[in-house]
Amino acid sequence: MTSPTAAPAKSRLFPMRPHDPNEPGRTASSLELFFDLVFVVAVSIAAAELHDAFTEAHITDGLIAYSVVFFGIWWAWMNFTWFATSFATDDWLYRILTIVQMGGVLVLAAGIEPVFADRDFTVLVLSYVVMRVAMVAQWLRASRSAGPSRRATQIYAGGIATVQVLWLVQLLLTGPVSSVALFLLIAAEIAIPIVAERQGTTPWHPHHITERYGLFTLILLGESLLASANAIIEALHDDQALGPLISIAVLTLVVTAALWWMYFWPPHHRAISSFGSSLRYGYVHYFVFAAAGALSAGVEVEIDVLTHHSKLGEVTASFTVTVPIAIFVLGIWWIALRGTADRVVNAVIPLAVVLVLLDPILPIPFAITAVVMTLVVAVLVLRPPLPQQAIRRTLLEVVRES
Known about the structure:
Layout: H1 6-11, H2 30-55, H3 59-87, H4 92-110, H5 112-118, H6 122-143, H7 150-170, H8 175-199, H9 206-236, H10 242-263, H11 275-306, H12 314-337, H13 343-358, H14 367-382, H15 388-401
Helix pairs in contact: 2-3, 2-4, 2-9, 2-11, 3-4, 3-6, 3-11, 4-6, 6-7, 7-8, 9-10, 9-11, 10-11, 10-12, 10-14, 11-12, 12-13, 13-14
């Protein structure tokens, strides 16, 4: 039985005070998990369109379109994630503004196909602006109770609002000027957190933020598992390519599991101990996430080649799989593994990246990638992450030697 004062509390607003960055037991909320699910739709459509572009041998155009589309997906997700780790409060207004952003993601997903087909960014930009305007409202609300972070929240709100106006102006441009403006506005979006955080750091929670990145990585790796399942489905309908298709399914599972193992091998919260390291961690994840999404497209391309539905040759098709794997591994090594691994691991992983990139021109494409990734996992099992004390000693030795 609820008390008389409990019911009104559900309908009133709460101040958006900064969270304690050292709060114990901080985990992702159900709203954050719900928010992530919407991005599954957008990522899946972007990967499907990239697959279609590869199949038609429109590699350069497909990669450019995918890079721009994925920036919109990644940047909307990342901005909300870093905001939520600092200022989230579970009241009705916060929920509604978050759901508005989710609606924007669904509209963005609908605008992906026109970007790939006709270079029409209208729906993509309009939906993106809707999501960003909702974030402006969140930052303005947070600024009222932000304390030492007030200046940063105001810069976030003002910077995001200004750039959204410019995005709408960009829709009026045509030709090369429109393309130049597009990339300038992407640069402006990326610059906003750098400027804002230098004026008053927001209180991000290392364990919470890295958990959020890990959960999104699982979503993206799940797309590759879906591609593996598609290979089995195709095999059941194509007796002539039964063996190769089953092999692709198995190899995809092995590689995806290895990527998962590598990603979650190091304690990620150690990788964002400073402003510079948090920027590196957040921004390099664009390449990690985009590579994970592109991997599923590459596996689908391999399936098309085996069933004679692709204009690509076998070697080129293999590169659509191995390049995303190499980018994913190199990115995670750079931002998370490198600082907690010993010399053996830090030598093995870059070597593995080179071997994966060379795989398509070797006699047994893709299978070698699976073997290499399995061997990397074996090394990680035998050589666990260095404890925090050992890392500090290593850093001190480096400083003394220099």
